[in-house]
């Protein structure tokens, strides 16, 4: 059983995310290009991703010894347990290796397939997004909420190009192209941060196919606590494990689904 009240646990997770975020920031200027590996085309990994994950696993294991882990760099093998930490030690590695921003640390705690808390930290902007169940999401301690934009016209929409671009993924990008005259699109390169931008009202929506649970688990929870909506591409709830997400302020969700995601 978990001994911590959820708020104290969240405070500790924030502290851990900040420590690892600072490590990422310190290392970015020092990173040795010969240590950069490729997992596939355009898909980078560095010793920093691995070391950051090792730090997170060590610190979170001390916090909640009974919990398991689902992590990008597979520092520990995934075993189904009552509590599971879903972590991405460095979301935005492509930005990171090009000495660009943004990038983030992303940590979610799941209990029996339900997220209880989410923390995303951007160490360069010094922005800490977090939420616990049944409460308002916060950015640097201040409550945040989604924008009120209710149409694609003049919308500010984030998206990403998946490493494995399927025919369906390509069709969605073509549909987005047809909206270029109507709204402003942005690719920032860190799904976790881009979903948090929707949560704090900075952008109105975000979509991406072929994502993994660690890219979206914390941020989608933060967004929902900020009043937003997340679905998979079929309007269902399988957006953490289903590898596709539409994350929005809720108001323009349906129009985005009709015009970009579902349009044939
Ligand atoms: C990636 C980022 C990127 C998205 C990729 C993700 P990584 O995560 O979130 O924005 O387009 O699909 O894999 O590899 O930097 O942790
Ligand atoms: Ca990621
Ligand atoms: Ca990563």
Structure description:
The chain contains seven helices and 14 strands. It is an alpha+beta fold. The chain has two domains: 6-143, 2-Layer Sandwich (Fructose-1,6-Bisphosphatase, Chain A, domain 1); 156-261, D-Maltodextrin-Binding Protein, domain 2 (3-Layer(aba) Sandwich). The strands form three sheets. The protein has a seven-stranded mixed beta sheet with strand order 3-4-5-6-7-8-9, sandwiched between helices. A five-stranded mixed beta sheet has the order 11-10-12-14-13, with helices on both faces. Strands 1-2 form a two-stranded antiparallel ribbon. Helix 5 (191-199) packs parallel to helix 6 (213-225). The model has no long low-confidence stretch (mean pLDDT 95). Bound molecules: D-MYO-inositol-1-phosphate and calcium ion (CA) (2 copies). One calcium ion is lined by residues 49, 72, 88, 90-91, 93.
